[in-house]
Fold this sequence. Notes:
Chain A: Keywords: Aminotransferase, Pyridoxal phosphate, Transferase. Chain A: It holds the Pfam family Aminotran_1_2. Chain A: Residues 90-208, 210-509 form the Aminotransferase class I/classII large domain. Chain A: Belongs to the class-I pyridoxal-phosphate-dependent aminotransferase family. Alanine aminotransferase subfamily. The complex is a heterodimer of chains A (522) and B (501). In chain A, the strands form five sheets. In chain A, strands 2, 3, 4, 5, 6, 7, 8, 11 and 12 form a nine-stranded mixed beta sheet that branches. A three-stranded antiparallel beta sheet of chain A has the order 14-18-17, covered by helices on one side. In chain A, strands 1-16 form a two-stranded parallel ribbon. Chain A is globular, with a radius of gyration of 24 Å. In chain A, strand 3 (165-171), helix 8 (176-183) and strand 4 form a beta-alpha-beta unit. Chain A is built from 18 helices and 18 strands. Chain A starts with 20 loop residues before the first helix and ends with a helix. Chain A is α/β, with parallel strands linked by helices. Chain B folds into two domains: 42-82 and 382-497, Aspartate Aminotransferase, domain 1; 120-365, Aspartate Aminotransferase, domain 2 (3-Layer(aba) Sandwich). Chain B has 19 helices and 14 strands. In chain B, helix 8 (140-154) packs parallel to helix 15 and helix 17 (425-433) crosses helix 18. Chain B starts with a helix and ends with a helix.
Amino acid sequence: MSSGPINSKEGKVLHPDLLNENLKKTQYAVRGELFLKAEELRQAGREIIITNVGNPHQLGAKPLTFTRQVISLCAAPFLLDHPEAAKIFAPDAIARAKELHKAFNGGVGAYQDSRGNTHVRAEVAKFIEDRDGVGPADPNHIFLTDGASPAVRLCLNSILRNENDGILVPIPQYPLYSASIQLLGGTLVPYMLDEDKNWAMDMASLQACGTLVPYMLDEDKNWAMDMASLQAAVKQARADGKAVRGLVFINPGNPTGQCLSYDNLKELIKFAYDEKIVLMADEVYQENIYQDERPFVSARKVMKEMGEPYASGVELLSFHTVSKVNVSGVELLSFHTVSKGTGGECGLRGGYVEMNNIHPKTVEELYKICSINLSPNGVGQVAMSCLVNPPKPGSPSFEQHKQEREAELASLRRRARMVTDGFNALEDVSCTFTEGAMYSFPQLKLPAKAIAAAKAAGKAPDVFYCLRLLEETGISTVPGSGFGQAEGTFHLRTTILPREEKMAEFVSKFRDFHEKFLKQYK
Amino acid sequence: MAAAASRGLSAAAGEAAQLRDVVAPKLSVATIKPRVVAAEYAVRGEIVRRAQLLEDELQAGKRKFPFEKVVWCNIGNPQILGQKPITYFRQVLCLCEYPQLLDHPQIGALFPADVIERARVFLSDIPGGVGAYSDSAGALVLRKQIAAAIERRDGYPASPDEIYLTDGASPAVHYMMEMLMRSGQDAFLVPIPQYPLYSATLTLYGGRLVPYELDEAAGWGLNVDNLQAQLAAAQQQGLCVRGLVVINPGNPTGQCLGADNQAEIVRFCEQHGLVLIADEVYQANIYAADRTFTSFKQMVRQLESSAMLVSLHSTSKGFVGECGRRGGYMEVVNFPPDVHEQILKLASINLCPNVSGQICCTLMMTPPEEGEPSYDLYVQERDAVLGSLARRAATLVEGLNQLEGVSCNAAEGALYAFPRITLPAKAVAAAEALGKPGDWLYCSELLEATGIVVVPGSGFGQAAGSLHFRTTFLPPEEDIEGVVRKLGVFHKAFLERYGGL
């Protein structure tokens, strides 16, 4: 008589039915079905336009010169004092490389502090202080990680104790969040963004959603948030026995691109305070802003400017009873990366999480977990140093560095406009403007015949469209279902990253395909 | 303030009883995932954190210390202790990281031709260079080169589709444990003593650790009968043991397995359907003249076994010592294709391992060949590091064996000595009074007295009643005699203070 779990099936121990269930349920569409199909075609010799993922260098974006000079010198310290070095590398790059090489003690080849090198964390703290103008940041509450994704997982792993713990996640969202929550066995509590109101929150769709109470970003309100529906989402989740512990928001949004206003952020912070929820601010696209009405403001800045009790909290003894009432500032986790912005250094894997108002012992536990992986990679940390502490005015590399960043940003702004306009010119396609980040998320109003054809092929309609688009044009995108979307709507996510000189061709390829598709199915 | 207080009060009073459980508590140790709190990793544990504080104080000149500097012997981090990187690797990486250099007119004077050629190939075959996300398993050109290198090493082919590059070897272990541990009834056989990544990941992913003790008296030998007994006992308890970890060369123990032993292990895993995780990150660190490295991959193929194997390698160890690069790979053999898909899916959530680390790993596996311009320097540097490591290992082990009540097995491989220590009864009692094991007390006092940082044996697991500590032999050769001497002085004083043995 056997007791305990089954170890093998059909002669295989490692049978797919005998794996961690959470793992099997996890999906990550950015490298899902469409991506795998694109790979297949690419290996068969087709030219693929890779716009499924925000990977600038793959489409020809150039790295920032200063950053690569510093990294290269850190790799080859023997070059630092070479007589030729001064002719090849800018003096401030040489100086920075020397500084970092010393600060790293054994250079980029040595494990650093598990939170990341102390010197670099101090640079990150200074960057945050200068950016926000609300006082110093604490380097010991900044953890450098191999990209922002491990930092997100680190935090979610500690917040989610079991399936009753929920995290509010915007729909549409970047599927790192859904995938991580699934893997960790927690509950995703979706909050929908309403496309018709420019991705703000939508009350009506709330009611329609049953146990999964969405916090929708309302597309018509430029994907802004409706606090009332957020509150309702939390209340419903609690009624279902879920402890809503965290709220993720992505600003600028991915895939939706909206930039939150100062007031939006204030509402969010107040909401988090009132409902006792940890705020996870994904701010990896903070440099990628393509309009002037809503410049980037960090959640930290707004929180601090709101003052007490949001900013840092006060330990309070009750006036009326013997019980002690602890009040804390909003628990805020902010994420950033070297992968985006104008540097686009995805492959280097550099990122950080900054913690505000997190219990000191919790910070220690997170430190402990980081230490199991010993240290974030050295090159990513050097890239982070160059991002947060770029050459200053008067420095030899300053002009070129500034010019490179501004040129790329201006180009991205133009491309954001080109892609948005391109989509809006298509019949039965509507697209909100990409205010920030790197993506376009047009809505496709697919004809009934197309939907039927998709069903017949056993595919979701947006998947069907994207597969056809891929097969006919080589353009690789991600169907909206990979990010979540309002019931009955279809989207796809593409990037705005093809180089400017290729953009017209990109837009026209899309147009030609779309017109052909409509002709066939309308 | 009053408003806040009244909100707090009304929160307490107004919240209906049935909602109390679902109101999210403030984030504290009591309210985060218990498995996170339970996980331990002694290599960077309490003593190490204390050492960090002392080093900060020392550098700030705040108070006087009985030592000049903190000597980090807790972790295999060679370059922080002065080990030089291999020139060839750094030259290639330098060019890959700043491709504009390739166009420089002086390039031929700065770098050898083979370095330039390597960099050109990498840059042309890795779309977007080091700054772009690569394939989640690692760039194909790199996996192909690594597969070819594995074939040269073992004499059996390797497939790029079975190779996953990772940010160091550690993430590979995370993937495996995450995939295989379905519940608290799933378990893994882990050697005692072990590198505590295994215990930590098992705790984190909710699985159980089934220990199998290595025999200290027999040079840390691995006895398959013991494995069998532990497996049977675990199954009796209703545990489903899914795999076996073998660290070869061992960490912290340093022993190298013989071919016969390896064959037994492979057959054992095949027989019981266990996934064999072969941690082979120290394969280039072998000092015993009568020992050579045989990979488990070679063994599996030689035996024509269907045993499922995950073999790990890393750029952090060997004579390469590129810890900070976070370069490594796992070769996953005899796994069903749809499980490979799941592994790829897991890897893709993090998009890709860092590309510089991927290149470094590839270079480690494909160093310069005889006849190439960089070959001589490479061999010279390699042999210098390995020779020095062997000498330091011998010096340290010999020094440790001189100490009263201390016995240390030879370090056949890896980077550590793991001496067994005998403590006076009074010391053990003093430790107990602090709620700590005896070896913790020893290591703690060693730190305070000498600045030398080592890790208590309890962090790795050890036979009941025994005490150890793990030290690296990485301090530079000119310092290692000093370390041995200071250790001796401290040890004598410690024994005296606690009433002698």
